[in-house]
């Protein structure tokens, strides 16, 4: 009877560890999704840590599954110790992501479908990270198709059509001058004659040249952080769900393991 009961609890633990294995997939998926985004291609901040954490969770869950199903105490011991540490790391990562992305530097512009961005609206940590690496980030952005994509399918946008076009944060902040400057629209990357040149330091930094545009503007740096903020917060939802499920699975696995060894 005891052997049958232990086998039953072992099967339960194996099933729970299989569920934990499945929970690692959203973590890996969130990391891959972040790494595919244009801004993360240039920043390299969250590309691989999330993927690596997801792979470690998968390996720990796999060790727990094998240990429970084939009764390998050493693997089970490794699973319980490693999974506890990884869950703590996962929650810490989520808490950090929410903390540094809490401030929002975006703002609505009347008569525009897109938002604009100010660097001062973001957390000190994010601002410091971006500013310290801006020369490399700028080079990466200018080499991309970021601004060339605007109006590629509709190359003869009128000013009114452009103002009602959905732009990505990077396109809004880096490819055109801020609305407050009062530049006159000619085409998506050609604007002339600012009526309010003193409205912002960015007004004097704008150049209608392919490699210049507003890549040196605070608005462009703020847009990068705005894009990162939006993506990290979306990814954090998947991470929170995975973390809660992993805690639930881990707690039940501990109960099943303790019951089997009484």
How would you sum up this structure, described in words?
It is a single chain. It is built from ten helices and four strands. The protein is mostly helical. The strands form two sheets. A two-stranded antiparallel ribbon has the order 1-2. β1 and β2 form a beta hairpin. The longest helix has 43 residues, at 218-260. The model is unreliable at 1-9 (pLDDT under 50).
Short précis:
The protein is mainly α and 262 residues long. It is built from ten helices and four strands.
User: What's the Cα radius of gyration?
Assistant: 25 Å
Range of helix content: 55-70%
The number of E-state strands comes to: 4
Total DSSP helices: 10
Beta-strand content estimate: under 5%
Question: Which regions contain 5 or more consecutive residues with pLDDT less than 50?
Answer: 1-9
**Order of SSEs:** HHHHEEHHHHEEHH
Overall mean confidence score, pLDDT: 86
Secondary structural class: mainly alpha
Largest sheet: 2 strands, antiparallel
Distance between the termini: 13 Å
Shape descriptor: elongated
Strand order of the largest sheet: 1-2
